[in-house]
Amino acid sequence: MRTQTISAAALLFMSTLATAQTEFPAKLSGHVIIPAQTFIAVPADAPADLQTSGKFADGPARIGSLGSREGKSAGRPTGVKFPFQGQPIQGHSGIKHMPDGSYWVITDNGFGSKASSPDSALYLNQWQMDWDKGIAKHVKTMFLHDPDKKVPFRIVHEGTDKRYLTGSDFDIEGFQIINDKFWIGDEFGPYLIRTDATGRVEAFFETFAEGKLVMSPDHMRASTPNPGTALAGVNLARSKGFEGLAASKDGKFLYGMLEGPMWDSNKSDWERVGTQQALRVLEFSVADEKWTGRFWFFPFSTGADSIGDFNMIDGTTALVIERDSGEGTADKACPAGTRAENCFHNIAKFKRIVKIEMNDSNVGQAIRKIAYVDLMKIQDPDQKARKPLNDGVLTFPFFTIENVDIVDAKHIIVGNDNNLPFSTSREPNKADDNEFVLLSVEAFLQAK
């Protein structure tokens, strides 16, 4: 790509264009609840270690007894004890609406880090949503495995035949299905993985931005430095790899959105558009199986610090979850300047679904933010909500909201990641359920 020199004033103007957007209302058309403590068993040929999970979820030392430790959310007891028998249905981190009306949902690495998740199996679930009854019907589970040793680094279950993958191998956060192949974005490397429809790994790709390797501290090529020396080659913060993975409507390209900005060594700062930190959206050619070098910037809006999911609407526009790190609502907040075990000290304020535009004219520049809906004020005139309202509206006050996709010309689906047993965002001391909301947002989807 041709290098251009852009003035500070031009960058600020681009940032202003990128963040200017119109708010549209969202009406609740359906609400599905999957109870927090929902578990599945691993396949019979999986290692015994995967029959239970969460044995390292609270630090480096193994927890010896099932159900002996209570989860906490920012210091608040959640009421759920671990380790677990089986694998919890949690960590929902990406969703795809299928032509038959079902939904595939990906589960992330498990308990938040490489060290905490060696007994967390990696898998995707297919669900049928019964919006009338408010329940999700499980169709099937696809466990990721690597019997052909396509993953080039040592995995947890290296010496087994099936080589089931775990949350210490990858943190899978986004996916697409193209010609019955599952393309999965990882947050640790970041990496891109392709599997068949059974979850068998077929290909593995490192990530490049303008020809330069993108590498977090958890990348396979990163080694622990000696005291006083830099972590050579690392240009992305830990846990800031691919959070969203979109695909062009023709299936020719994938678009991986990082969760954090890359490090600009020339400026000794994180990449920015204007004054705002900006995430790269990197283009990958499915046919050529390589990164094209094309990219776009997604600058954070004021008040936001993370994205949650990313799916295309059409050839040039897409849906992105943009959010802060708060959780809970004002009616259950701690007194100002205090924190306690039974109240929220950092309430949710910025939880949005943003419609963006990225096309050939803004390659290498900031995407355009067209419009948004505020997930903290979902209208419920038809009384579809299955959780209590706040001041007449349904809020979605979760710490992590990581699922969004278009359903039809009028509706989108949005879901949370409940981080079991570590998130309590509706009630200070009750672990969050997995929730999905069907939102009527026709005007938002038509916004230009």
Structural account:
This protein has 448 residues and is mainly beta. The chain has one domain (8-446): Neuraminidase. 4% of the residues lie in helices and 39% in strands. A five-stranded mixed beta sheet has the order 1-29-28-27-26. The chain is globular. The relative contact order is 0.18. Residues 1-7 have low confidence and may be disordered.
| Count of helical regions | 2
Which regions have little confidence, pLDDT < 50, spanning 5+ residues?
Answer: 1-7
Q: The CATH topology, please?
A: Neuraminidase
Q: What is the makeup of the main sheet?
A: 5 strands, mixed
Counting structural domains, the number is 1
What portion of residues belong to β-strands? 35-45%
User: Kindly state the mean pLDDT as a whole number?
Assistant: 95
**What's the total number of strands?**
34
Helix content: under 10%
CATH C-level class is: Mainly Beta
How are strands sequenced across the largest beta sheet?
Answer: 1-29-28-27-26
The CATH architecture assignment turns out to be 6 Propeller
Q: What general form does the structure show?
A: globular
Radius of gyration over all CA atoms, rounded: 21 Å
Descriptive labels:
448 residues, mainly beta, Neuraminidase, globular
Please give the structural blueprint.
Blueprint: H1 8-19, E1 22-23, E2 27-34, E3 39-40, E4 52-53, E5 69-73, E6 76-82, E7 84-85, E8 87-88, E9 92-97, E10 103-107, E11 123-130, E12 135-143, E13 172-178, E14 181-186, E15 191-195, E16 201-206, E17 208-209, E18 212-213, E19 242-247, E20 253-258, E21 263-264, E22 269-270, E23 272-273, E24 276-285, E25 290-299, E26 306-312, E27 317-323, E28 351-357, E29 368-374, E30 378-379, E31 393-394, E32 401-406, E33 411-416, E34 434-440, H2 442-446
